[in-house]
Design brief:
heterodimer, A: about 250 residues, alpha/beta, TIM Barrel, about 45% helix, B: about 400 residues, six-stranded mixed β-sheet, four-stranded parallel β-sheet, 17 helices, 14 strands, about 20% strand
């Protein structure tokens, strides 16, 4: 069974953490993964840095730019992750924009992911229709899940379609925005969380974008299976460093 | 029509809409409606009337006698530089502001490099009384102070793009992020034939007034409604798309695209996308773009801010790959020299972008009976400072 599916077996609310590979330091990737696992997170999204991350707010943009400056690349990340399954048993998801994958070669990219033990991908700028026409069979061949996003503006009909063709989880974007921390969620978000909760989708949902503290985490997971934290974690890493990761994770447990 | 967009939004291998889900409702709304809206009688009536009375169309098709004599061929200039605001850009912003109104949008955003598209957008927003925010790279804001002032005078808010290299590509990223954050009330007026489908096709249709006028004017002057060659500069490619549009599927018409070689193709400071680019995805479209082997988008360079874009519209990528168009690239120095030549031989000071196109006359032979139409896409007022510094005219 795919590790992502396994992680949804229990009843607990999942905590998933995103970070940009190669940031703050180029060789931080494996130590960060180890610290996250030791602190008890349930899943990790490893960000593949891109020069033009147009769905991301300032925090992830800057971490991405810094990672590239540090020398991060697709090739380098795969090198770092080569033996990761000797120590890390968490579900691992690679999140990145489509162009670097396209240049690496999609089939070669999928092969590498499978060889390393990557469980799935999130590619924000590869729409569900194009994925199905052109790439799904390849991803299936290498046992890779591809997760899709929905937003408060996504129509019910489209949510049903995405649910039907999804594996792993649905990435529920909390509000109409790029990534970045918020301190609270408003009434509109709560109604949206409720609305999706009532749809009884077959695919579990993780809420992401704007989750920064236990309050937003609680609100986001009241009607979903868990939440993804990115920008807030990256800010914490910059200030406190890899050795303090368990202090961050504690806030959400 | 073989070289037009297909029903999936592709030009051959290029195009499509590689967009985050957050943009899907807006782009899809536009895709479903743009042909019906822009084809409706009320839209066409208003569009044509504004192009005539506000923009000043039709622009002249001018026979450049001295230039023709010197190069021993027949050279016509399509005078887009005479459009209100000084370039072809306003053909598109007029079309898109009418589109935005019909889609019920109350706020406009745009990106700009040199500031020409920003000014053209600020102008139509003032005309319609609609709120306007223009994103511009922090570096370009410094380089193009007069256009920043014009936008502000027209009532637009100019927001500085601080990310990445702080130029056009980053301004475009910021505009896209703004659209993600404001998905309901805002329309994004893209300035070139780039971006996700339907933008490249929609912008090309609004600019196609250039080639449709050219047909009628040639018929009157030459007794036939097509030239032998159409020549235009290509950054993103909107003025070129406008000039080529009605000739794309006419094999009698040769298409020439002129890109900016910057300091030279092999110097690492160039914007010649057809020579240096590889297939990839930029700003929601699959096209040719300049990038590292790892797929990171690189910074182009050209002395003209309007050709300083790391990609090219998907229509042009298709014209290049299928060899329907000849692509040539011209270094800064030759383009600047042509700025001076055109000024002193025809009394027309061209934008530096436009000057690139004319350098085709030095690269390629044309015979005496052939008819060539250049898109004289913009006037050089905005570039005076650069010309003065370059030629030490002070």
């Amino acid at each position: 069974m795919n590790r992502i599916d396994q992680s949804f077996q229990g009843d607990q609310k999942l905590l998933s953490i995103y970070f940009s590979a190669g940031h703050p330091e180029l060789e931080d990737t494996v130590p960060i993964l180890q610290a996250l696992q030791d602190s008890g997170v349930d899943m990790v999204e490893i960000g593949l840095p891109f020069s033009d991350p147009l769905a991301d707010g300032p925090t992830i943009q800057e971490s991405s730019t810094q990672a590239l400056r540090n020398g991060m690349s697709t090739e380098k990340l795969f090198d770092q992750l080569q033996n990761i399954r000797e120590s890390i048993h968490l579900p691992l998801v690679l999140m990145g924009y489509f162009n670097p994958m396209l240049q690496f070669g999609i089939e070669r990219f999928c092969q590498k992911c499978q060889a390393i033990g990557i469980d799935g991908l999130i590619i924000p700028d590869l729409p569900v229709e194009l994925y199905h026409q052109q790439y799904k069979s390849l991803f299936d061949q290498y046992n890779l899940y591809n997760m899709f996003l929905i937003t408060p503006q996504t129509s019910e009909e489209r949510i049903r379609y995405i649910d039907k063709v999804s594996s792993g989880f649905i990435y529920m974007v909390s509000s109409a925005s790029v990534t970045g921390a918020k301190n609270t969620f408003g009434k509109a978000q709560e109604n949206y969380f409720k609305r999706i909760g009532k749809m009884q989708l077959k695919t579990p949902q993780l809420v992401g974008f704007g989750i920064s503290n236990s309050e937003t985490f609680q609100a986001a997971t009241r009607y979903s299976r868990g939440a993804i934290i990115g920008s807030a974690f990256i800010k914490f890493l910059e200030q406190k460093g890899v050795n303090s990761i368990s202090d961050f994770v504690k806030n959400f447990r | 029509m073989k070289y037009q967009v297909d029903e999936n939004g592709f030009y051959g291998d290029f195009g499509g809409a590689y967009i985050p889900e957050m943009l899907y409702p807006n782009v899809e709304e536009l895709r479903q409606n743009y042909i019906e809206i822009s084809g409706s009688e009320s839209f066409q009536k208003e569009f044509k009337s504004l192009l005539k009375d506000y923009v000043g169309r039709p622009t002249p098709l001018y026979f450049a006698e001295r230039l023709s004599k010197k190069y021993n061929t027949k050279i016509y200039l399509k005078r887009e530089d005479l459009c209100h605001t000084g370039a072809h850009k306003i053909n598109n912003t007029i079309g898109q502001i009418l589109m935005a109104q019909r889609l019920g949008k109350s706020r406009i955003i745009a990106e700009t490099g040199a500031g020409q598209h920003g000014v053209a957008t600020a102008t139509v927003c003032a005309l319609m009384g609609i709120e306007c925010v223009v994103y511009m790279g922090a570096l370009d804001i410094k380089r193009q102070a007069p256009n920043v002032a014009r936008m502000k005078m027209l009532g637009a808010e100019v927001r500085s793009a601080q990310s990445g290299s702080k130029t056009l590509k980053d301004a475009t990223n910021e505009a896209i992020r703004d659209w993600i954050n404001n998905p309901v009330d805002t329309h994004y007026i893209i300035g070139s034939v780039v971006g996700p489908h339907p933008y490249p096709d929609m912008v090309a249709r609004f600019q196609s007034v250039i080639s449709s006028e050219t047909q009628a004017q040639l018929l009157e002057k030459e007794g036939r409604d097509y030239p032998d060659h159409v020549i235009a500069c290509v950054g993103g490619g909107s003025n070129a798309a406008g000039l080529y549009y009605h000739f794309l599927d006419d094999p009698r018409v040769n298409i020439i695209a002129v890109e900016a070689a910057g300091k030279g193709i092999d110097t690492g400071e160039s914007a010649a996308t057809s020579a240096l680019g590889k297939e990839g995805i930029i700003h929601g479209s699959k096209t040719l773009l300049m990038q590292t082997p790892d797929g990171q988008i690189t910074e182009p360079y050209s002395i003209s801010a309007g050709l300083d874009y790391p990609g090219v519209g998907p229509m042009h990528a298709h014209l290049f790959r299928t060899k329907r168009a000849e692509f040539i690239s011209i270094p800064d120095q030759e383009a600047m020299d042509w700025g001076l030549t055109l000024s002193q031989m025809e009394g027309i000071i061209p934008a530096i972008e436009t000057a690139h196109a004319f350098a085709a006359l030095d690269v390629r032979k044309f015979s005496p009976e052939e008819i060539i139409v250049f898109n004289c896409s913009g006037r050089g007022d905005k570039d005076l400072e650069t010309y003065i510094d370059y030629f030490k005219l002070k």
